[in-house]
Design brief:
By secondary structure, the protein is α+β, with helices and mostly antiparallel strands. It is built from three helices and seven strands; from the N terminus they run H-E-E-E-E-E-E-E-H-H. The mean pLDDT is 83.
């Protein structure tokens, strides 16, 4: 029984790592599986991230992790993702436990963005339906 449990756990971990992209931030570039996809800029002590089309200043995605200036009160925290060219804004409490790398991985896994830095409008709409849950 213990052997089956270890085998199941190993299979689960392998399947998780096979489908996730390796995201790195190096010298102003976002690398997905060691390929440059976006330029980036972090602001406000690391709570805001802008992703730009490669070698331009055209902002494609803006991500903000917002704690509403209440460090010890977590119920009002949310992540805001803005796609300025697509005029789409997502505000989600579901993503608050994720860092920038994990959010970008999620965008790749849901085929919202591809390795060319292109945004898929249909998948963006589906992603917004799943993640946009913040009520004002």
């Amino acid at each position: 029984m213990k052997k089956n449990y270890v085998l199941l756990l190993t299979m689960l971990l392998l399947s998780i790592t096979m489908y996730s992209q390796d995201i790195d931030f190096k010298k102003g570039k976002v690398l997905a599986d060691k390929k440059s996809v976006f330029d980036f800029d972090k602001r406000k002590m690391g709570s805001e991230l802008s992703l730009f089309k490669l070698d331009t200043k055209t902002e494609l995605i803006y991500i903000e992790i917002n704690n509403n200036n209440t460090i010890s009160y977590l119920d009002d925290d949310f992540v805001k993702i803005v796609f300025p060219k697509n005029e789409v804004t997502i505000e989600s409490t579901l993503l608050i436990d994720k860092n920038f790398k994990e959010i970008i991985q999620l965008l790749f896994m849901n085929n919202v963005v591809d390795y060319n830095g292109t945004i898929n409008q249909e998948n963006l709409f589906l992603f917004k339906q799943r993640q946009n849950n913040r009520k004002i």
